[in-house]
Amino acid sequence: MLNEVKITDNSRIKEFHFPFGQIYFGGYVIYKGKYYHMDNIQEVFQEEGFFENHLNDLIGEFVFIKAVQNELFAIVDRKRSIPLFYYKEGSRWIVTDKISLQKDKPLHQTAAKEFLITGFTANEKTLYEGVYQIEAGSYIRIHEEGKVDKQEYYQFYHHPVNKDIEEFSEELKTVLLAVFEDLIKRLINKAPILPLSGGYDSRIIALLLKEYGIEDISSFTYGKRENKEALVSKDIANRLGLKWDFIEYKKEDWHRWYHSQEWKDYVNFAVNGSSMAHLQDWPAVREILAKQDKDYVFIPGHSGDFVAGSHLAYEITMDREFTLDDVIQFSLQKHHKLWEMDRGIHQSGEDVLAEIRRSFGDLPYETNEQASALFEYWDWRERQAKFIINSVRVYEFYQKSWEIPLWDDRLMEFFKTVPVELRFKKFLYDYTLHQMYPDYFPKPEKPAAVKAVSLKEKYGILYKPAKKLYNQKKLFERYYTEPMEWYGIYKSYPDYLKALSFKYDRIKYKQPYNINSFLAKDYIQSLEGDSI
């Protein structure tokens, strides 16, 4: 058997030849305080087993493949920032960075369901039978006889320690400063540009870049003219002295953009059989680079809010005993909602539920610390490391680099030590930002440990019919009210209404949640022969 490595993007993943075999590397790592990248990474490869021996000591966004005597060893980083895939071709295994359309392989029906209701495929599956992905914080070893061993070397699962908020806050400040001190080294001779929203993440990135002496910072936002987020973004840019650009989105533009060959090419580039391409800032990036094609480095705020605890519902922080089904239900409510399945996911998606259970492994879940940790573990391994990270593909599509400092490994490690009461509503994060820059971040109030009365409890038997009417009203209105105007991907309002439900594999899907619902539907239908 002769296994093979197929790399399509030689600008991002470089091949090195050594007496013991071939090495493929992309990205960067920091080891013992030293920054290694494509131009000096050969220094560490002099130690043949460097990555295997020091994997848990490395910081960075990277991919590593070693091909030695017909054995393959392939690693992705803790965020799966550079995806890798593997599949069998005849009697040999192929490891690759790109799987594109696999017309000779049938769709994996469970994966297709997951894609429709989450925008990505769970565990090691892709949309295609027999094609697999290496998951975040994991590696595979393919032996000469064809056996594949999979190993998770990192878990974003919390193990809180006992410190007061001032100690945690000082430590978080120290970590943030260390992350940005290293980031500055990677920005030499580059032009940083920030997708600037009205939120905290892009704001702290701008402030820390300026603190470390970067003055020439560009920023942009987009949407309907005078939308609320754009107004906040412009105000922040003015206060911080950033160059600011606004890209207007109009319905008629969306229809033209969405049905262009450029969009189809981008989707083919980005989906990679595992995660939907992001629509949000694609036209903005395209427009910015058409105006001025500088050596930009895009620096979005992913995934600072998640790492800090913003996805936690109050109910999962309560001091009570939890079951595995409780944690599954929290995940379903938060992440499996792009479409409602006819008869519900518990009847129409039992295979999807089984995949959630499988991804949980043997991690504990009984206490609020454990339940919240398991919930965030799944979120990290699945949604963040597949769907959210995929937003950087738009920069790669236009051959630009990116940085995600708020998702640095050191921040992940720090927040693993923080108790759930300080992660809830990202209280510690917001508190620390206020301590660092009180003029830009208000002091947060600690969330009250009181359960709010839900609408379901408030309205009783009237809740379900009232919610149904409200959701229908919202669906019918948003074609005209969406501040990003992106429902203009459908040429007319009647066309939009026709897209509000569909059937796939004998299951009816209805109640689309947001724009990604339509993108996932259109993509899956395109694989069945219908054009987007």
TrEMBL record:
Keywords: Amino-acid biosynthesis, Asparagine biosynthesis. Residues 196-429 form the Asparagine synthetase domain. Gene3D superfamilies: Glutamine Phosphoribosylpyrophosphate, subunit 1, domain 1 (3.60.20.10), HUPs (3.40.50.620). This is asparagine synthase (glutamine-hydrolyzing). It catalyses: L-aspartate + L-glutamine + ATP + H2O = L-asparagine + L-glutamate + AMP + diphosphate + H(+). It comes from Cytobacillus citreus. InterPro entries: Asn_synthase, ASN_synthetase/amidase, Ntn_hydrolases_N, Rossmann-like_a/b/a_fold. Its EC number is 6.3.5.4. It is an enzyme of class 6 (ligase).
